[in-house]
UniProtKB/TrEMBL annotation:
SUPFAM superfamilies: ATPase domain of HSP90 chaperone/DNA topoisomerase II/histidine kinase. GO terms for molecular function: phosphorelay sensor kinase activity; protein dimerization activity. InterPro entries: HATPase_C_sf, Sensor_HK_TwoCompSys, Sig_transdc_His_kin_sub3_dim/P. GO terms for cellular component: membrane. This is Sensor histidine kinase. The chain crosses the membrane at residues 21-41, 47-67, 87-104, 110-128, 135-154, 160-185. It comes from the Bacteria.
């Protein structure tokens, strides 16, 4: 870590998507506007050709950008998942392309007539399966040899080689520079999707592990409690003393089951601010949100109580969840620092909903009560289209847990008075000492 502020940019796929858009749709629009537009504005070109070419150029630019932009939104096309371009847009692009090819070819401009058809072929190819894509490009390269070559031979201008070969090479080159960035984009999206699936599987496995642990503990205790309850019921009239002993054991087993359950929940729910900030960076990046983390080195190195780090970690987790579920955020900012004897955490994001559903639940309100009990506070507010969550906890001992095993230290709920029996308070180790 440096001496100044630490800023971590996690842009996810946003930067690559922006680059791909400028590389593919942006390049297509620039090429058409520069080469064809220059020809349209040339005073030597007859007016009968310039007027329809100008109209066709506007239509072609619009259709090409729309088709390529839509292609960036769609899932990658594979052999197992075929796709297709919008028929209306494609028809419009082909029609305008025919006009922009026929007019320059009629005026024997052998270098310009193939620009628009080559772009249309590349656009259609981006929507096809790989095998059909290669077939389309190969056929287009071969067919591109004919129009210019035939016109040149008919005119006898001696440019038949250039008229035939240049359009064919232009078709191949245009397909290459169009499909290359899209291939990289598709690959990046597949990797990002695989990463998200891996994260979801990890969460599900952890939930299954927790469910299995809880089932093992409660299932064992409940089975023993049921058997002993049945035995005590049978002994009530025949042997009251033994029945009382069995009921006492049932009470002890109930206290052990409660302790074991709390131990499992405590281990499952435990979290820290450091872990949650790192997790938020990865999750927000995976969602395509630009995340800026500003961490005060003094705050990172501060000897903050475990309970305070746990509570701030819960705030970080809840704020990240709200960004993902209740906003259309494109940017999020996290600021954590120590000031005036307090640890301050602020999470701000744009794209906030006007009436976020998060405020209808108990997440932030429940955390606000817990921070208030620890001597801190939690506030949230709207700031235009931004939503801001601010948490503050004292760094002194007032925010420390009452004892190493207290509910405040573990994050587990406070036990009710009905379970605080003398037997439970003096029972053996609730995990290892429970009957098996």
């Amino acid at each position: 870590m440096g001496d100044g502020e630490i800023e971590r940019e996690a842009a996810g796929l946003t930067g690559l998507r922006r680059y791909t858009w400028w590389t593919v749709p942006g390049m297509a629009a620039c090429v058409l506007a520069f080469f064809v537009g220059e020809w349209v504005l040339d005073g030597d070109v007859p007016l009968w050709a310039r007027a329809p070419a100008a109209a066709a150029l506007v239509v072609e630019v619009w259709a090409s950008v729309a088709l390529l932009s839509r292609r960036l939104v769609l899932l990658p096309v594979t052999d197992a998942r075929p796709g297709g371009p919008p028929v209306g847009l494609l028809t419009t692009a082909v029609g305008a392309g025919v006009v922009l090819a026929a007019l320059p070819l009629a005026l024997r401009n052998y270098g310009l007539w193939a620009v628009t058809p080559a772009l249309v072929v590349a656009i259609v190819a981006t929507y096809l399966q790989p095998r059909r894509r290669r077939l389309l490009i190969g056929v287009a390269v071969v067919l591109a040899l004919l129009p210019g070559g035939v016109v040149s031979l008919a005119e006898g201008d001696g440019e038949s080689a250039y008229a035939a070969l240049f359009p064919a090479g232009l078709v191949a080159f245009t397909a290459w520079v169009t499909l290359g960035p899209l291939w990289a984009w598709d690959t990046a999206r597949r990797l990002d999707e695989a990463r998200r699936l891996e994260a979801e599987l990890a969460v599900r496995e952890e939930r299954l592990r927790f469910a299995a642990d809880l089932h093992d503990i409660q299932g064992h205790h409940l089975q023993v409690i049921a058997l002993k309850s049945e035995l005590a019921q049978r002994l009530v009239e025949r042997d009251p003393a033994r029945a009382a002993a069995e009921m006492k054991e049932i009470r002890q087993l109930s206290a052990d089951a409660l302790s074991d359950t709390r131990a499992v929940v405590r281990g499952y729910r435990r979290t820290t601010l450091d872990d949650e900030i790192g997790n938020a960076t990865r999750v927000l990046a995976a969602a395509g949100i630009d995340a800026r983390m500003t961490l005060d080195p003094d705050a990172v190195a501060a000897d903050l109580a475990d309970s305070a780090r746990h509570l701030l970690g819960l705030v970080m987790r809840e704020a990240t969840t709200n960004v993902l579920r209740h906003s259309r955020a494109g940017r999020a900012e996290v600021d954590y620092r120590i000031a005036d004897g307090h640890a301050r955490l602020r999470v701000r994001n744009d794209g906030a909903e006007e009436h976020p559903a998060a405020l209808d639940g108990t997440g932030l309100r429940g955390l606000a009560e817990r921070l208030e009990a620890a001597g801190g506070e939690l506030n949230w507010r709207h700031d235009g289209d931004r939503f801001v969550v601010e948490a503050e906890l004292p760094t002194c001992a007032s925010g420390a847990p009452r004892s190493p095993g207290s509910p405040e230290a573990s994050g587990a709920p406070e036990p009710s008075a009905s379970h605080d029996s003398p037997e439970a308070a003096h029972s053996p180790n609730p995990v290892d000492g429970a009957p098996r």
